[in-house]
Amino acid sequence: CLVKVGLSQEDARTTADNLIFANLRGVDSHGVIRLKIYADRLRAGGIDCRARLGVVSQGAADALVDANNNMGQVAGVFGMKVALERAVESGFGIVAVRNSNHFGAAAYYAMMALEKGMIGFAATNSGPSMAPSGGRQARLGNNPLAIAVPAGKQLPIVLDMATGAVAWGKIFMAQQEKKKIPLSWALDETGAPTDDPDKAAHKGLIQPTGGHKGYGLSLIVDILTGVLSGSAFSTHLKSLYKDLQRPSGCAHLFAALRIDRFMPTSEFVSRVDEIIDLMWKCPPAPSVERIYVPGEIEQEIHHERLAQGIPINPILKEELAALAKELEVHAPF
Fold first, then answer.
1. What's the CA gap between 285 and 277, in Å, rounded?
2. pLDDT, tens digit, for every residue of 49-59?
3. Of 137, 187, 189, 285, which one is least surrounded by beta carbons within 10 A?
4. What is the pLDDT of residues 276-327, one digit of tens each?
5. Phi, psi (5° rounding) for residue 54?
6. Interhelix angle 9-24/296-308, nearest 10 degrees
């Protein structure tokens, strides 16, 4: 489908890999549910998949990249690779990317550092969908961040979190499945909590996670991405689902840290194994079966779905089948 709407084989594979990565980890809000909107934006001209990415400025440990409105996934992989190259040379690499688009699951980029034995970081801003604490108009996106930390004998720790209580994709999934949502997820257009996904999606708002703390985190992510890179921020950003013909102006930040500049990597990962074990051995509360560390549930779902397949709800299945028909692509179901 992505090739049919203009992407090169390489860029289409990168984008598809990012979507399937999310589905395999159980993060269905960032998986193939996003395919149609990507295709729609590409066909409307809101994303320029033929644009060339360029390094605007660079130093020994840093770089500023202009995506020139290309795919977010393409810009994300490019930016993280540059950050890793800088970290190899300098011990730490940090890269800002401007004029980009929705880049999917943030963990995808942070985990690229694990292959190099480094700690990885990725963050992005997004179109406004969340009000400041106490407000009732959107001023910030549900701006996510991800940090990936290698371990030794255990699986890596991977924190991938939005600064809002939930991703829009989960609300869209609840709409498709005709299910109510928790009252802590969203506000309706009056600023009141709602359990109706239709009211949330129609002029509603995401609630910040942890109230003022999520608001503060979202604001800082917007500053470190949009403000710092010279890209769009706050209400200057365009929503992924609106004004499809206009660039969204997203910005990202990627970083990589060489562990061996602080201690031998083997010692570090052994210490990470120890802290993981300490988390696991914490006595659980009466209603809790076991303690997890960040990324552990996703890894378990990944193994399960690799073996059993990725479930797709009937409405999404119909949407994908219709898109495949429009683009004259064989639907694999």
1. 17
2. 999 999 999 99
3. 285
4. 999 999 999 999 999 999 999 999 999 999 999 999 999 999 999 999 999 9
5. -140, 145
6. 110
Give the separation between CA 69 and CA 248, rounded to whole angstroms: 8
Q: Which residues are CB-contacts of 172 (< 8 A; sequence separation ≥ 6)?
A: 29, 33, 197, 201
DSSP string, 138-195: --B----EEEEE--SSSPPEEEEE-SBSS-HHHHHHHHHHT----TTTEE-TTS-EES
Name, in order, each residue with C-beta under 8 angstroms of 87's C-beta and a sequence gap of 6 or more. Answer: 61, 93, 113, 116, 118, 256, 257, 258
CA distances from 112 to 52, 80, 120, 254, 331 (A): 22, 8, 7, 11, 30
The token pair that represents 160 in the structure block? 């991938």
Kindly report the number of other CB atoms within 10 A of residue 179's CB atom: 10
Region for 295 from its dihedrals, namely left if φ exceeds 0, alpha if ψ lies in -120 to 50, beta otherwise: left
Percent of the chain at pLDDT > 90 equals 88
Q: Kindly report the CA angle at 68 between 64 and 72, in degrees rounded to 5?
A: 85
Q: In 10 A of CB 153, how many CB atoms?
A: 10
Tell me the backbone φ, ψ of residue 95, rounded to 5 degrees.
Answer: -135, 130
Q: Where are the beta strands (DSSP E) in the chain?
A: 54-58, 62-66, 92-100, 118-124, 145-149, 157-161, 186-187, 193-194, 205-206, 250-258
The 10s digit of each residue's pLDDT in 180-235 is 999 999 999 888 899 999 999 888 899 999 989 999 999 999 999 999 999 999 99
Q: What is the dihedral of CA 266, 79, 253, 9, to 10 degrees?
A: -110
Q: What are phi and psi of 11, to 5 degrees?
A: -70, -35
CB 113 within 8 Å of CB 119: yes
Count of CB atoms within 10 A of residue 29's CB?
A: 19
170 pLDDT higher than 90: no
